[in-house]
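Sequence and fold
=================
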Amino acid sequence: MGPGGNPYAGNRHADVLSEEPKDEAGKLKLLEEVKNRAKGAFTQKDMPSAELLYSKAISILDTMPEKKEHTLYSNRSMVRLNLNKVEDALADAKACLALEPTFAKAWHRKAQALLRLFDWDDAIKAAQEGAKLDPSNKAFNELIEKAEADKAKDVEDKANLKRDAQDVRVELHNASTARAPPKPKTSEEGEDTSMKGYKTRADGKKTSYFHTDISDEAKALIEAQGFGKPKKLDAAEVAPVEVKGGGSQWNKAGTYEEKSMIKWVEETLKSGMTGLVHEAPAFGTKLTCTGVEDIKGDASISSSRGKRRRLLDITFTVTFEGQVGAANGKAKLLFREVTADDDEPEVKLEGTSETPPGVVEAFRRPVNEGLQPKIVKVLKTLVEEYKTK
């Protein structure tokens, strides 16, 4: 909370966010200003400010129930989807439709939120309702196709995991129930009674009755011919064994095998991103990536029944520091839902309370140039390389 108890003191829109007009004319005037700023914040990709501003507009109209605007809930739903606040985005979409059931965009927001919550059937229903209202909008059909594909993939993945788990259980059961070789029986005198058909040689060792002792003279002749001596086996003479299922040479049967790739992912991210620099001398701007931290999630490659599956689902944080004119500060870029698919990850920019707004803005504004595109390029290269592992 800022000075004087103002929770918006650190925000550049603190003047309108803190204002509380009493009369209706003042409220309507403030409402238009807040809506205009909300649109501007969204255009600048300043989603946290856009959410605050749309929430302010909604709170103003809450004091005037007869003037509620359904589009405000739809717009805030879109902003919250960008902030990965999926449950809140879904609630806003429903609130919009409660006010205006024929608003197609709200059905699209609802379908998007349900899709991210893995509620594919309801996502398809929402998209179908939107398509009825706006048949020419291809986005609804694309959402339906994606929901159906994701649902089918989920069913397949669960079936594969169940089958692979069953394979492992069978192998463990077979290993645990394998019989140990029987122990030889001995007489009371300690003599091995299980070795029937054997005889004792002159040196006291047991051998088969069919074994013929070789004389010293015969041994000398065999040794002279080079027989009986161990020979070094050249590695080049050993033919490689074909392995089923894309597993290792130790897994010749091609049964389930899994290899963790999280360490490789960590090393690749850190080596590729740490030290990246973007400079714009004309604007007195210099941004430097200082590291990658909080790498979490799963990265593994499994092989089973001739198929190779790559699982990648991670989150991580990129730290950077910047200088814009005389302002210096540090901030973070949060990556969420990074997968091996072609879907764009969720990205959120956060500054600390000590970070001047100019430093954060310098990182956010460039679209085709700057430090952020360089970081994204490293990430895309990692994903493409991961697909070849």
